[in-house]
Design goal:
This protein has helices at residues 14-27, 39-51, 114-128, and strands at residues 3-9, 32-35, 61-62, 73-76, 87-91, 104-110, 133-139, 145-148. By secondary structure, it is of the alpha/beta class. It has one domain: 3-Layer(aba) Sandwich (Rossmann fold). Strand 7 and strand 8 (145-148) form a beta hairpin.
Length: 152
């Protein structure tokens, strides 16, 4: 059963949360597609993936580069799966009509923006009739994540 996880940030930036989740993705030998709304945001995240820690980086490719299939993390502005990923990361409460061949979807959004919470409620309702394993996580103080009941 595909898994759909919502991550509601409150303290940390979206990019910081993505860095943590993508680090865990690589540690578990999974592949990921990350969809962001603009090339500027994609390039910003790409820079952070190269420089997040002085002694390491997360291997990734960016839309427009050659050989996307060779990258364990693919950053793009559209729903696609050129690197045969199991994991899909969405930002800003976006959601495709279907999750396609992805086994797990992470929807990371800023819980301080009311419109984004409204979008999440709509997505939750839409996918609730399908056969998905739903999880909802809220960020608490000091960046701790707590699995909660969906607040909608």
């Amino acid at each position: 059963m595909p898994r759909l996880d919502f991550y509601q940030t409150s303290e940390s930036s979206l990019e910081k949360v993505l860095l943590g989740l993508l680090t865990k993705t690589i540690q578990t030998s999974e592949r990921a597609v990350v969809v962001m709304d603009s090339i500027e945001r994609i390039n910003g995240l790409s820079s952070q993936l190269w420089t997040q820690q002085p002694d390491s980086w997360l291997p990734h490719g960016v839309i427009g580069e050659d050989e996307p299939s060779s990258h364990p993390i693919w950053l793009t502005n559209k729903i696609e799966n050129p690197n045969n990923s199991n994991f899909l990361f969405l930002t800003d409460a976006s959601m495709p009509d279907t999750l396609g061949k992805f086994n797990r979807c992470f929807n990371v959004f800023d819980g301080n923006v009311p419109e984004l919470k409204t979008n999440i409620t709509e997505h939750w309702s839409k996918f609730a009739t399908d056969d998905y394993d739903f999880n909802y996580y809220e960020e608490q103080a000091a960046g701790k994540w707590v699995k909660t009941k969906y607040p909608g």
